[in-house]
Each structure stands twice: as C-alpha cells, then as structure tokens.
C-alpha cells in the first residue's frame, strides 16, 4: 500500500437488505471507521483530486471514504459516526431518489421475483409475460434450471445489459402479471432514501456530496443525449439544493467508456468506478478504483470487527480480477 490510496466504497449501513454484498451493520461500520481513523490518514476526495498531479503531497497509506446512492441509513446511521469520529467522506447522490417515495429498481425486482419463484407454475404456464421474447426465455430458463436466491441476482445481472426504459417496462409488466394473478406483493413502507432537508442539514465541510446521476441508469446502455443529461443535470440539482459545488462523480454500477469518461471530465474533477484496487499516481483520475466493503469483509467468525480480516480483505480485493 506504500504510495497508494485506498478508496473505500460503502452502500447500506443497516441490519437487513436484499443484497448482502452491499450491507454492513452499524456496529461494524463504526468500528471499521474508528480503526481507519486511528491507523491511517483519511483524506477527502477534494484533497486527492487537488494533489493528484503532485502526488508527493498525498500521505502514504491514505484512505478515502465514499458512500453510494444516498440511502436513508447514510443520514441516520453512517453520518453520526463519521461526524463524531471526524472522518471525511464523499456521498454520491442519485438525485432522482432524493426526497422520492421509491425503491431501488433492483430491490423492487427482487421482491417481485420472490413472488414469481414462489408461484413458478403459474408463470411457466403463460407464454408471454414480457413484451420482449428474450426476457421471457431468460427468466423461464432460470426458473427451470435452478432454485434459490442466486437466480434472482442472475436475472438482475442479465437485465443490466438493457436500457433503463426496458428495465422499467420489465418491472411494470411483472407487476401487472402478479396483480392479474391476485398474487400479493410485499411493499416496504419505510422511506429508502434521504431527502433534501437532511442533505442540506449536513454542514461539515468534510462531508461532501458528489453526483451519481439522476436515475442511476447503466450509462453504457444509453444514448449520448441521455448520458449527458444524467451526468450534467444531477450536478445542477445538487448544487441548487445544497448551495455547494459538486466536483466529483461516480459511474452507476461502475460502467463507463471513453465517451462517458469524456463527458464526466468536462464537469467534474474526478470520477469513481467499482473496479477493485488501489489508486496510485499512475491511475486515471476519471476512472478511480475503489474497494467495496460489506459485513463479511470486516468481521470474524463471531461477528466482531477484526482489523486482520479487514486488511486481508483489502489485499484480496486489490488483486481480484
């Protein structure tokens, strides 16, 4: 790690979520942040970008903390810990989710698929649920070939190759089918994301807000006009709502290409991916590696935070292809 910066990536700081790979409990998050703050230099994304060309100004073994999406538990769980420990962080907001009564599309789809798999005979008896035949075939094959939670994530990953409009239509078609079959869909009545009052109430200069687009589309699936709107309008919205400059961007799902990188570089000082690895002076400031952290990566077999498990996880992730 000498001469390198570790950018940590968090999503949910909560006890339950449909995707365990994005979850860390509050207690584990607090102990992890306490360990990092006491053992390493924690710098801001502003400091990293400002000194990127003069790398010698960046302390060895530095850490940057980032949190994606703008979930409500950032405000209720993570922020109080970061504030008390004086740990700087950049929170990448998906502006279309802020103050909205909505669920993340993957979470909505997971709830729907749970009902589909529980009533798979009814689904298999229908020739076409979706307007796109290939999506019907894919889901039927997954139902016939496997059981259990992994197939939900396989279908979610499959849909990521489509545009946001097709994903939205697929979810709507599933909802219509389940309603026609009088199959109840469990609804989470809790608000999932922060609102603008909560965001604006955070005054610490070391807690900064970056852009994560408006609607969290996978940008590599979209046309240029959609890409430009998602990247630029999210910045404008956050700046208008908070009165702060927005200098940093994060690609949804980590997906980008040369065109998307160029568009981001025209509005921001940095951009993060989800590619695992450390950052060095040879890195691309608009394609920064990060290491995603979840519960399993910081706790031992008893469920307690372990600095040894944490540092070993960083090493394993840094070499994972």
Structure description:
The chain is an alpha/beta fold and 321 residues long. Helices cover 43% and strands 11% of the residues. It contains twelve helices and nine strands. It has helices at residues 26-39, 45-50, 72-85, 105-118, 120-124, 133-145, 150-159, 164-180, 196-200, 224-242, 258-265, 307-319, and strands at residues 5-10, 12-13, 23-24, 62-69, 89-93, 207-211, 248-250, 270-272, 291-292. It has a five-stranded parallel beta sheet. A two-stranded parallel ribbon has the order 2-3. Strands 7-8 form a two-stranded parallel sheet. Strand 7 (248-250), helix 11 (258-265) and strand 8 (270-272) form a beta-alpha-beta unit. Helix 1 packs parallel to helix 3 (72-85), helix 4 (105-118) runs parallel beside helix 8 and helix 10 (224-242) packs parallel to helix 11 (258-265). The longest helix has 19 residues, at 224-242. The radius of gyration is 20 Å and the shape is globular. The model has no long low-confidence stretch (mean pLDDT 92).
